[in-house]
Amino acid sequence: MIKTIGTACMMLILATVLVSVGCKGKKKAADDDKTDGTAKPQYASKGDEGTITGKIAYDGAPSTPKKIDMSQDGNCAAAPGDKSADDLLVADGKLANVFVYVKGGPTDKFSFPPPSDPVVLDQKGCRYQPRVLGIQTNQILKVTNSDNTTHNIHPSPKTNQEWNQMQAQGAPPIEKKFGRPETLIPVKCNQHPWMKANVGVLAHPYFAVSGKDGSYTIKTVPPGTYTLVFWHETKGEQTQQVTIAAKESKTQDITYKAGAIARATSLQIGPALVLP
Amino acid sequence: MADTTQSEQLEKRAPETPEIDPIADQSMSGALLISSLLLIVTLLWSLYDEVIGERPWKSYQKNFVDSYSSYLETAKKRQKNLEKEVKSSPEYQELDQAYKDASAAAKELTDPIDAQVRKVDTRINELTGPFQDARSWIVAKTYELEVAGSESSRKSIRDAIEKKKQEKIDVKITGDNGLEEEKSLTFPELEAVYNSLRDEKARLLAERVQITQPIEGARKKREVYLQDHLFGLTEEQVAKLEEKANTFKFEIKQINAGGVVIDRCESCHLGIREPITITKADMLRASKESADDDPSLDEAEAAAFVSHPNRDLLKTHDPDRFGCSTCHGGNGRGTTSVDKGHGRYKHWLWPLYYKENMEAGCNQCHNRDRVLQGAAVLNRGKELFQVRGCAGCHRYEAFDREADALSNARQSIKTLELQRDERKREIAQTGAAADAASTDEEAAQLRKKAEALRQMISQVDARIDEFDTQAKYLMQDVKKIGPNLKEIKAKLRKDWIPVWLSDPQAFRPGTKMPTFRLEDDEIKAVSAFLWQAALDVKPPTQAQGDAAHGKELFKTLGCLGCHSINGQAIDMGNQVIGGDFAANLSRVGEKANYDYIVRWVHNPRQRLAPYSPTLKRDLTPADYKQKNLPFVFDDDHSKSPVDGRELQIQNMTVMPNFRLSDQDARDIATFLAAQKRPGVDYKSASYLDDASLKSQGEQLVRRYGCAACHEIKGMEDEQRIGTELTLEGSKPIERLDFALLQQPAMQGREPMTGEKIEREGREGWYDHKGFFENKLRSPGIYDRGKVKTPEERLRMPNIYLPESDVTALTTFLLGSVETSLPESMRYNAAGGKKAVQDGWWVVQKYNCMGCHNVLVGQDSILMGLPMYQSADGKEQLPPRLTSEGARVNPDWLLRFLKDPSQATPAERTSLAQAVSGHAQAGGDEWAESLKLHAQPGANHNGVRRYLKARMPTFNFSPNELQALVNFFMGASSQAQPYIPERLDPLATDEQGMARALFSSNAAPCLKCHMTGDPAHDARATAPNFLLAPERLKPAWTRRWLLDPQLISPGTSMPSELFKRDSGHDRWVFNGPTPPSFQTYEKDHVDLLVRYMFQISPDEQRRLGTGGGGAAPSSAPAPAAAGNKTAIVERKTRRPSLRGPIAAIRAP
User: Fold this and answer.
1) How high does pLDDT run on average in chain B?
2) Would you state the pLDDT for residue B574?
3) How many angstroms separate the CA atoms of B981 and B976, rounded?
4) Which chain A residues have a beta carbon less than 8 Å from that of B872?
5) CA-based nearest residue to B943, from B1104, B1114, B1141, B1102
6) Is the ipTM, as predicted for this complex, more than 0.85?
7) Are residues A71 and A77 in contact, defined by beta-carbon separation less than 8 angstroms?
8) HSE-up of B932 (CA within 13 Å, CB side)?
9) Considering the entire predicted model, what is its pTM?
10) pLDDT tens digits for range B452-462
11) What are the chain B neighbours of A32 within 8 Å (beta carbons)?
12) Alpha carbons B429 and B427: distance in angstroms, whole number
């Protein structure tokens, strides 16, 4: 009798063990081709894009631009072209070289492949031309040297890779990319300290730089609500809210005041140590 | 009678009924049932324990294997796709093709060789048998010959061998046609054939290796490409891991590190060392996806399976050698429950460190490291211990070591002096004994002894001298955290002192000065004592300066690397900005006198009066007058006029001398003096002059150990008043006095409110961590509820640390343990590493990292300031020092650190004379000596004169200079001594070529590098080439030219100056070169380095006027000028760069 109970117990235990061992099968992972879910879908045009256009006014009399002393490099001094400072270009009360771009809205939801055409930054007359330019992430920036002297191109980004490369006269163009949106990356030539450029890197193509007449146009903007950012090298940053309906063309003008420097809202300022 | 009884007894003994046999007659089934049931229960119990109870790790292992396999499966797919992507790239395809081509090409050549080798092998095999047989026979016979006894037997053996050698041996050899050939050969012939066959084979194989080399190269290239482009493991590697997981052995996983550490942590923490990265989220996801496991992993389990967060750490601390509990604490052998394993139970002395204190574990082996890479919390703890002045009251080995060394040196001098007197007496006695000696021999012996004793005296004298020198150096090195209170009468506004003492945090939030729990009358007494104990002398009145210029200097000189200030004061927002190493100067104008600030910023090391440690008092002009000496005390006049011993001639502050001109000092002081709230007025504190308060104040100052951080008259030799903390972490818990808070601590009640603390994974705070944290948060806490007189109360003042700093200090204290680990497991730095270890103490002491990037990945304070963010601002940052040891000649570095202005000896001498003359001018000598003196190297840097930030003079002692040089050399793995390599002199044509390149448009070196022309140098961004030969190392210079961004990211020096000319295996200039270069076939980098190392001032002038390079312009600095010129203009003296530099004493 006892023996039977004992045997039964042993059998039971054995069975349990066997069952538990037997249960070791594995379920296939539910969805094999699951992607990370971080990649945004590529934007597909619906043909209902609108346009943002406008003029940037400058309220006040700009001081006459100073002449840049290029005497430290004879080749720069001898080069033809304007030698006056171009950090603040005002003509007829209109401000040039303002970088205008949209933020938020559909630009956050889609990805935009970079155009295959490069953006060209030329060094001519020992100046960067243009002084302010926009580029998409991973679009090629082609830096050329039209001067009869050696330059070095030194962008100092915060979140992109920094580089500093020499380009002698007649050297082939330097081609580089920026992998991450960043507004804006200052570029300088260490040998000619007056040479400054600013590169706005965006993940989408909806940006423009105001021309000499202060006007800008951002084309084929997908309908949606955006923050429109105006950025000027010395006069700071201003923003506007803008909603673009299907096929709508909107005019967004803005004015920079002569005396004031607009508070930067998205400008990255280095972290200062804050004490308790 | 007796018989009867016996028979009766026998009768009685006969049983009436047979006794019941307990075995045969009683049923045991009940008992048996019960015991077998018990047995089964125990069996079940033991089985339960086996699987679950005592071996909880088994279920961990099962869960791990399930989720891990499932995770690996997903990972494999991911990697497979990635790999496919990489392999389909054209670059990879090309490499793959190259490999295949190489293999195919080689195959044509290797096939015949392989065939040849096979043939040779066959022949060797055929010959081996007969050849070895014959050889063995001969060898055996030769042995017989060697041991044979008689000459005759020897002869017969010799003959036998000879005969054997002449015998023909029949062998079969396969010929080239593949047919076997029979041959008869003598042994020597056979040997020759055999050896030649073997040589042939070796030759063939070598040839084959030659041919296959390109395949290997191509294969490697392909592999490297795959490695470079594939993130993580390859599919194959993941598959191997999967296989390993599938054949997992369920058992205790144990590390036995030499019997010292036995850890079974990996029985549950199974993912720790897996080569693939496992996160908690990975495991949770994988567990959901795998089938049989319901319920799937819980969070805690998933967290236990992750891989070690710092793989690099495991590389240097191989778990097989160090185990886990060595660093983490816990009971490594415990496997029965999580709490047991983690050692979180009563009586276990080394519980697992909580996550925030994890780095405490580093300290038991790295206690000698002031800075330990990767242990930021521990480093912060050590920094606080030093910077907050903890070491002033609490002895801690290696902290404040100069003070200890100094008292040792002084003690040694005293002992040696006694020894010398002793010897003198002995000599006299020995001499007398010699005179009275009975024999000449004995007399001669005694004379000899006396002579030896005299020589020993000279040795003792030498040691005293050395200790005296060391004492001098140490006096230079020993620092106090707080200011010198002997000078407060000259420095402070009287009414401010009691306000400050009552609540330093209110006046200056975040200050190092702690708050002592004093009553109002006690504060009065302390203030009165300090005031009355101060030196009664006023520095001369200074004219007001230009505050705007002072502000500019304050912003640009580098003051903010250590000091902070309200951003509004320097037009930079309204937050406090700057470093927290030194005081926040936002309200300095409310407390300090202008005249004193001028002196202080001009040269903070200059005291009002020198202190004599031997006389134990401050010397006055009267002391000097007695010896007819001027009242001058500085580096060159550091001996006491009274007893010739070394004086304390410096203020014991780490604040360096910025070599300011008098005017700049006034400008900065004017700016600082204006830093006050408008209309601030303090209540009059006339009681500071009340002599009756002095003795009470003195008592209090002594009791609270104020002299730990401050110099106070009469308390220069005070001992530390706190507990030694070197081994505080291993103090038994019973010896930590929780006082009345022991119960609340055990019950886990908040010490302040008595409320129950709800905290995950931790019950109560009756442990070291709890004691330290609460003590640091509120140092008086363990007085709570106690009845004590004021004298008995805890003296440690309130230090107001943010919670992160409490954690840092707690971590440091928890790690302050007596280690039981063998010396072989501890970190014993040697050579360069030792130099780095020692050097960190100096680097941190003077806060070099406030301005410099010393450690790769470390940002200086200046690098974070707003003015250094722009592209132009970055050019103004002090140099990175991460490769300093590889960059500079150590001899030069020593001279530079001694005097960063690189002032010429002539300049020094003339200034020193001026100082002496000044002091002798008559009048009130004391007041006269307190005037500002011109300083050598005033207002300029020694190397980078274009930087507005100035490398100040730290007055390092030779000991610290050497420690710093060794630090930089060690940190860059540079051996010492350094003997500069001799560079090939330039040939005349090379000289011309290099000059042409240097002055051509294409290589505008002199546009940015200094030339000695002040107008040019003001806008330069790189040092003068004339410094190169004595400053730089050629190997570094070469690397710098090739890729400066690699050495100093963000530097103004552009990359891509050279391109590879693989045809000539050299680097050539990446731009148009002068025509002379066309026939030059050597390396261009080499040429330029050699040229740079021999540029003379003449050559430099020639360059300047040579071409379109840097024409020295007399025009004022362009665009970049503006407000900056103001600073530049004051640099009037023409730099002299080549002058010999005063040799300094190197220990």
Assistant:
1) 87
2) 85
3) 13
4) 188, 193
5) B1141
6) no
7) yes
8) 26
9) 0.81
10) 999 999 999 99
11) 77
12) 5
